[in-house]
Amino acid sequence: MSGFLPDLASWALRGQSNNENNEENEGNAESSSSEPASAADIRAKRLARMSRLSSDPSSNGINVDAKPNPEASAKGDTEINAMESDKDETSLPSGANKEEEVADMDTSNDDAKTVPMEVDSKPAATAPTGVPSVGAKKAKVSNSSSDGSKEAKKRELLLKKTLGVVLASSSAKPRSSSDKAHVTINLEDDGPPTISIQNIAEILAARLSLPSDDATLRTSPPQKSTLLGYLASAHYKAGVERKNLLQSNDSSKSGELVELLEEIQSQSVSYAASSLLVPDLFEGGKDGSTHLAQLLQSSSSGALTDSITFGVRGSGSSFYSLLCEELRSQDEEVFRDIIGKVVSCFVKKLASLETILDSGSGEGPLVLVSGLTALCSNKKAAAMVTVLPCFLLPAENSDKAKEKVTPPMNMPNMDNASTGSAQQQRFFRMMQQAMMSQTRGYLRRSGPALEKETLLGLVMRLGLPPENPSVSASFTNATNRTRMDIKKGTDGLRSQMRVYQEAVHGLVRGLVTAGADARTNVMQWIADALTVNAGATAMRPDKSKCSHPQTLLNLTAALLKLCEPFIANPAKSKLIDPRFVSCSAAHRGVFNIQGDDAVSRLSDESSEDMANADIPLKDYNPKNAFIPQCYFYTSRALHLGLIASSSHHLNIQRQVSNTAWNIRQRNGDITSDPQFNHILTHQYANEATIMSPELLSDGLRFFSMSSGYLQELTQEQLGLMPEHMVDDACELTSFCTKMDAKGVMVGLEFGNLFGLVVKLLSPDFAKTVRNYNLRAKLGDVLYYVYLPPDASNNSSSSIPPSIPCDPLSGGRPYLLSSKAAQATLAPSLLLLYGEVEHTGYYDKMSHRSHIASLLKYLWESNEHRPAFARITRDKDSFIKFANGIMNETNSLITTVMEKLPDIRRVQVQMANTATWNAMPEEEREVITSRHEENEHEVKRALPLCNKTLQMLGYLNTDESIRKLFLLQEMCPRLVNMLLHVLTKLVGAKGLELKVDNPENYNFRPKEMLRDLCSIFACFAPCDEFQIDCAKSGYYSAELLNKSIQTCRRLNLLAAGNNNDMEAFASLPSMVQSATLKVQSDEELTADAPDEFLDPLMCTFMKDPVFLPTSKKIIDRSTITQHLLNDPHDPFNRKDLTMDMVTPATELREKISRWLEEKRIGLVNKEKEGL
After folding, report:
1. For residues 492 and 501, what is the distance between their CA atoms, to the nearest angstrom?
2. Which of 16, 489, 835, 1022 could tie 474 with a disulfide, CB 3.0–4.6 Å?
3. Cα–Cα distance for residue pair 552/641, rounded to 1 Å
4. For residues 649 and 570, what is the distance between their CA atoms, to the nearest angstrom?
5. What is the pTM of this model?
6. Cβ distance 231 to 205 under 8 Å?
7. Cβ partners under 8 Å of residue 955, min gap 6
8. 3-state SS class at 238
């Protein structure tokens, strides 16, 4: 290339008018040319444009509003004056008049974009416009000594190392075949080329202006193919060389070389910015945004030398960071536009992926997310990302939010349908209808829109969806594979998932730390994600409204990582302001109290009262606004994500178990059954994500911290907390104990959760937490987590022995070491036993079985005996509890004794294979279905039945408790219940009942009889018990004697200190004596007036009371027993409680006088008879 660069510019522009809009004239010239432009012509015109931009920024609409450095301006003027003699028709205005010219352009050209540029303070480093100066004639450097020659060689060597070029004059020979590693640049000088700070821009311009097919670019090894890649590499290499020079022994003599390297770095950044601002400035500048996205991707996945975010002097000195600052200094809008284009590249690629296992064109999700993280490593760039249109959903209730999107349907090919058979045509129509029914639109503000139209949604949706073939492929033919093989596949998937979630956390963290505005937008996105997915906890979430569970799991994982600082530091958790959930403006609708998506609170206050207590934003002034947002949003994400998914996984497990049972019942083979294989594969695929040890461990640690925080709140503050915060803590902890999660729970602290459970169950908070299902769950978590394994009799529990123990008390169980538990837990559990009646028929059996096990453990410990003694002081509460036990036992024993014979009969039928197979299939299915229901019911009923009988036995060994059972309103019910059970066990030949595998049903008739007879022995000496036995319609002397004989024969009641066997054996004679007394009393009251008789039972009233709701008089024992089971007046169904009942004093006195008269009359009659 001959001549100076300005000469080339003049040649390219020769013959054109001196017009400011040279681009337009250039275009006209090109269009009027009859011959196509050569590569040399195109290259020359690019250089001419650079010269124009350097001399006249107005030609590209670029405005200069930064004040130039005086020293730089002076030196720039000198260079400009030196160049004027070389210019042809184009002249560069002097530095003194440049600002005035720009000012004139601002007023005359309103449509031009103004891009403010910063001025480099280094001498002639870049033109003030920010476009590298290539028209400045380099200053000659004279090196007359040998030192100068050495310096020149050093400069040449640095140029080779950093830019990969060698300089040659126009008369120099082409590159020798031996030097294939560098690109030869021909400058304009006829003399030997020199390298200086002043001509680095010219050297770079010449290198960048080479066409892509230029032979000199084919180096070995090859240089970076893209313009930005080449400049970034040059910037990094210059930084490394600069560092080496400064660390060398003769660093004091290398000042000029350091300045040269700094100039290379500065010009690399400047040219990169210019190519992004003016994409056609260089041929390699096209698709600059795409190239920048690729460089960001390679920054985290490639070598350190390929990272544009790594700076030799720190992240702030990286090529990317300096490039962002350079672009931002030009114009904020232009900078945002470039960032937007880069993000669009990522969005397009992310949208094409479905799982973290995908790799579109070698660019997998991890690479893309890492690239986005690199993009956000610059805070200004990250802030720009959060204001892009693809970041947030439309605002709630906006017109755009109500727009509906209908995704295109991938219909099957119907070309051959018309020519096919009638059956084929019907099949195609059915496929069309099925696909049309499955293709549902979604609103612009919804869960699907969050995943498809927002940047973070596209990132969060990628994971390991179990229904995806690429995920389930790891578990194909699951029934024929070993557990070790399955574990290997699971561990591999979890490892990839863990790495991906860490990358997602890095991206979210980069956005959150980008500044207050960026953090606000990120929190708004999270709030939107939580509000649009409020229905995710449904049994079958609406897919047109809710995101995929994988999205919510990834969001949960990312938020848990954000909470890590205050999870690990209890002092920071004190910054959580509980008023956050009561300020709708602060929580952005995530914790609404009213509406379809209302979030229930712990307290039972009405939603209207809570809504009236909403705190205005101006009154919500926390010390730290981020920590409350992070904490409460994480708790909500856990509820919608991890907790909902864990519940769904338990349903899958039940489905697998039921399917296997059904296959075995029809003598099938589960290993070859395709349906079972499909369900089991789905379970294993789902476990890969939901059973991730890191996710479960982070969730448990969060709930431990949360439980400690909730304990510190006042009762009023606690009542305003979302109910699911407590529910989820119990749910996740119980879930981990039900699953094989030993490794997850080891080393974690569970004292905070125990303290919270005890506090919420205590009498003081019984009225604060009124949700019976939640209170039942509190009892369940005590059973699953805190009851020592040797006391729980729970074979499915997999918790390590250390979990139920308090490390701060020498390893003693929390149930025994906690002072709060010693004071309140026993009465709380007795109260809870009655409350779970409201949880449903089948659920209450499981809850009460757990409570019975806990009570037995507490009863056997000396620490809780004082609390049991205090129970008797609350007579009403204990009577409710005792009534619940008796009702439960009656119902359970009836169910068991009715179902067991049916179970035995079907077992015998199935055992006879020939007869069973001869039955019609429909009949077998009916019998099998009923048999399965009977088995499930017995398996639920028998454990509780066994435990209630045991509980009655050990509780009544305490005299104060036994006296409560002997009360007039309790003793008749106790006697009837015991005799009813005894009849079922002995009278109905229950001891002789046989079933296959009785332990599977917990059917132990001998143990049941032992517990029952011990209760009879305990009450046998009591007069009240004897009299009520005599009155009971269930009593039979034959039945009692038979039971006594059975106990002796089987040695069920061994003679001990209490002589239980002797006491039980003496009961028939005592009842016989009591019968005589009962008969005497009945004769005395046989002719009693009707007003003395109970209106319901028709029995003689001993303690008449007045019912204010119906104005009726009834016996106290009758109404007491009635209200224990039904809180309504038996005569008109109005609400009624015992504290509303008043004694019928007048009638009682009347009855007493009548009885006295009858007794006197009877005595006189006996005397007369004598």
Report:
1. 14
2. 489
3. 5
4. 33
5. 0.80
6. no
7. 859, 961
8. helix
Q: How far apart are CA 940 and CA 918, in angstroms?
A: 32
Paired with 186 in beta bridges are: 168
Report CA 399 to chain centroid distance, whole Å. 30
Instruction: Please give the Cα distance from 12 to 47 (Å, whole number).
Output: 9
Buried b (16+ CB within 10 A) or exposed e, 1110-1130: bebbbbbbbbbbbbbeeeebb
What are the strands, taking DSSP E only, across 984-1053? Answer: none
Residue 793 has a pLDDT of: 59
E strand or H helix that includes residue 296: helix 288-301
Q: Rounded CA gap, 420 and 638, in Å? A: 53
Q: Is pLDDT of 965 > 80? A: yes
Taking phi over 0 as left and psi of -120 to 50 as alpha, with beta for the rest, 1111 belongs to left
**Paired sense of beta strands 805-806 and 442-443, if any:** unpaired
Q: What are phi and psi of 221, to 5 degrees?
A: -70, 155
In angstroms, rounded to a whole number, what is the distance separating the alpha carbons of residues 371 and 509?
14
Average pLDDT over residues 699-720: 94
Q: Buried (b) or exposed (e) across 823-839, using 16+ Cβ within 10 A? A: bbbbbbbbbbbbbbbeb
Find the radius of gyration of the CA atoms of the chain: 44
Distance CA 290, CA 274 (A): 16
Band (pLDDT 50/70/90 cuts) for residue 419 is low
For the record, the structure tokens of 598 come out as 């209302």
Residues with Cβ within 8 Å of 910's Cβ and at least 6 positions away in sequence, in order, are: 665, 916
Which DSSP letter does residue 989 get?
Answer: T
Q: What is the model's pLDDT at position 316?
A: 84
Q: Are 1139 and 1123 in contact (CB under 8 A)?
A: no
As a three-state string, the secondary structure of 632-672 is: HHHHHHHHHHHHHHHHHHHHHHHHHHHHHHHHHHCCCCCCC
Residue 806 has phi, psi (to 5 degrees) of -90, 115
Six-digit token pair at 807? 């490390």
Inter-residue contact 626 to 519 (CB < 8 Å) = yes
* Enclosing H/E stretch for 443: strand 442-443
Amino acid identity at 1003: F
> How many H-runs (helices) and E-runs (strands) does the chain carry?
51, 9
Residue 67 reports pLDDT greater than 60: no
* Assigned token pair, 530: 């939580």
Strand 812-813 with 805-806, pairing: antiparallel
Token pair of 674 as six digits: 């395709």
Residue 463 — φ and ψ, nearest 5°?
-170, -130
What end-to-end distance do the CA atoms of the chain give, in Å? 154
CA distance 849 to 709: 31
Written as six digits, the tokens of 882 are 């005792």
Backbone angles phi, psi at 405, to 5 degrees: -110, 125
Give the single-character DSSP code of 1142. Answer: E
Distance CA 902, CA 500 (A): 55
Q: Please report which residue ranges of 331-461 form alpha helices under DSSP H.
A: 332-351, 365-375, 379-385, 422-438, 447-453, 455-460
- Backbone phi, psi, residue 349, to 5°: -70, -40
Beta-ladder partners of 412: none
Extract the tokens encoding 852: 């019975």
- What confidence tens digit (pLDDT) does each residue in 1108-1129 have? 999 999 998 888 878 877 888 9
| Distance in angstroms (rounded) separating the CA atoms of residues 78 and 704 | 72
Cα 1033 to Cα 195, 800, 973, 982, 1100: the distances in Å are 118, 51, 12, 13, 17
Answer positive or negative: Cα dihedral of 847, 853, 856, 861: negative
Q: Tell whether the torsion through CA atoms of 439, 445, 450 and 455 is positive or negative.
A: positive
Contact of 986 with 1043, CB cutoff 8 Å: yes
Distances, alpha carbon 240 to alpha carbons 165, 233, 251, 263, 313, in Å:
17, 11, 14, 14, 9
Q: What DSSP state is assigned to residue 998?
A: G
3-state helix, strand, coil in the chain (%, to 5): 65, 5, 30
